[in-house]
Write a structure and sequence with these properties.
The protein starts with 20 loop residues before the first helix and ends in a 14-residue tail after the last helix. Helices cover about 70% and strands about 0% of the residues. By secondary structure, the protein is an all-alpha fold. The relative contact order is 0.16. It is globular.
């Protein structure tokens, strides 16, 4: 792993500011998202709604805090665009309600999925200081370190083991990679939640890998985090997680060497070599998990082509265009929460499997506007992060925005509860890198150091 800072051009003194209320609430929201599935799986499924309401209230609090303290003025352009978008969504939802294409319950759920956590991410990024940012990153890192032994145990345990089944479920409801090998879920109750979580953690791991370190303990922490990420991806059984982690690791190694300058290039090379050695050891140690994942890829290729799957995720399923109506079926109708409210079950999404299709089927014409809005955010964010990466000689901003872009375009944010909340967290991290580009994740004990 790297032993140098990701921002080699300057080392501003670390500011010993304390956590704000917004920062504490942001961390609380993240922890609830990570832990609510564990409570649902192993304690009581009845705890889902109280925990969901708790994190929604905290998300609303962060938005209110940013409004009350004028923090959103720091993101004035984004806030104004988001306000216009919110008014448009509310108006369209009310039109669907009047036309009989929706119901008050579905509309409220839809407004939550289409708006709440986007506002939360923007508000959190505007209100959080460097100490909040650093603490949130550290908490996220520790969740990965602590969850890795859990997912390894899940991977090697049979489908019927208590750690793999839900308190009110049975072995038949456990997702499998191949026969007798589970798709790990970590603390999440659905595989999609854990896959999304791993994607969120990807750039954060590289932020620590590239950060300036001052002692062996900090180096050990970064190496352990990198190792935990590799192991977690290998035993996940998720084609998406394995593909993304592989591409991002390669991108980190190449980008780290390419962007480093002067003496930093030598130190970057040492860090990359150390990372490659650790990667080789872990690949050998968990070669059984790799073989299982290869089988999964082979079986999946017999059903659908890889590139066909990628195109479907980004462009949508044919059902979205075959069944498209200009008004839409109702904002919120495609979410699993709306399905549960209407039928008492969350077995399948009501409208379509992928996000691109659900947006069009739920919103009709406004679905196309939503898609255009997402693309505009991605283009602006990637462009700005590229400039920042070259200015700081750091690969972290562009890697971060690669995952933010993937999240905005493909995560089941208007369908799946965990993915929806994690998108808000991901968006906040994406905006925080612009507000605090030179933050030190391992600050010196003495601020003047």
């Amino acid at each position: 792993m790297s032993t140098v800072a990701s921002h080699t051009h300057t080392h501003a003194p670390a500011r010993r500011s304390t956590l704000t209320r917004a920062g504490k609430a942001f961390i609380a929201v993240f922890l609830i998202i990570v832990l609510e599935g564990a409570v649902r799986k192993w304690v009581s499924s009845a705890a889902t709604l109280p925990m969901l309401l708790m994190r929604d209230v905290l998300a609303i609090y962060v938005i209110a805090y940013a409004l009350r303290n004028g923090a959103l003025q720091r993101q004035k352009g984004i806030t104004q665009a988001l306000l216009v978008w919110s008014c448009l969504v509310v108006a369209w939802g009310l039109m669907q309600l009047v036309a009989g294409a929706s119901s008050p319950t579905v509309l409220l759920i839809g407004l939550r999925f289409w708006l709440l956590y986007i506002w939360f991410g923007v508000a959190a990024a505007a209100a959080m200081n460097e100490a909040d940012y650093r603490a949130a990153m550290r908490v996220a890192a520790w969740t990965l370190l602590l969850m890795t032994p859990l997912v390894v145990l899940q991977h090697f345990s049979p489908p019927g083991a208590r750690i793999n089944s839900q308190v009110d479920g049975d072995e038949t409801g456990v997702f499998l990679v191949i026969a007798d090998v589970v798709r790990t879920t970590g603390t999440f109750s659905f595989t999609a939640g854990y896959t999304t979580y791993l994607a969120l953690m990807t750039p954060l791991v590289f932020a620590y890998a590239a950060a300036r370190k001052r002692n062996g303990r900090q180096n050990l922490f970064a190496m352990a985090l990198f190792g935990a990420f590799i192991v977690s991806s290998m035993v996940s059984g998720s084609r998406t997680a394995v593909t993304l982690s592989g591409l991002m690791v390669a991108g980190y190694f190449v980008g780290r060497l390419w962007l480093a300058r002067g003496k930093a290039k030598v130190r970057a090379a040492v860090g990359v070599v150390a990372g490659l050695l650790l990667l080789a050891v872990l690949l050998y140690a968990f070669r059984g998990a790799i073989e299982i994942t290869e089988q999964r890829f082979q079986e999946a290729s017999e059903v659908e082509g890889f590139w066909g799957r990628v195109l479907m995720i980004f462009i949508g399923q044919s059902v979205a265009y075959d069944q498209f109506t200009w008004l839409g079926s109702g904002i919120g109708l495609g979410s699993n929460l709306a399905t549960f409210a209407r039928t008492g079950s969350t077995g399948d999404f009501a409208l379509a499997e992928v996000e691109a299709s659900r947006i069009l089927l739920e919103g009709g014409l406004i679905g196309y506007v939503f898609t255009a809005f997402k693309v505009a955010v991605v283009v602006a964010g990637v462009s700005k992060s590229l400039k920042l990466s070259f200015r700081l000689h750091s690969v972290y901003p562009i890697l971060l925005w690669m995952v933010v872009s993937l999240a905005i375009l493909t995560w089941s944010a208007i369908g799946q509860l965990s993915a929806h909340g994690l998108l808000g967290i991901m968006l906040a991290f994406g905006l925080l890198v612009f507000r605090h580009p030179t933050v030190e994740f391992f600050p010196p004990r003495n601020p003047s150091a």
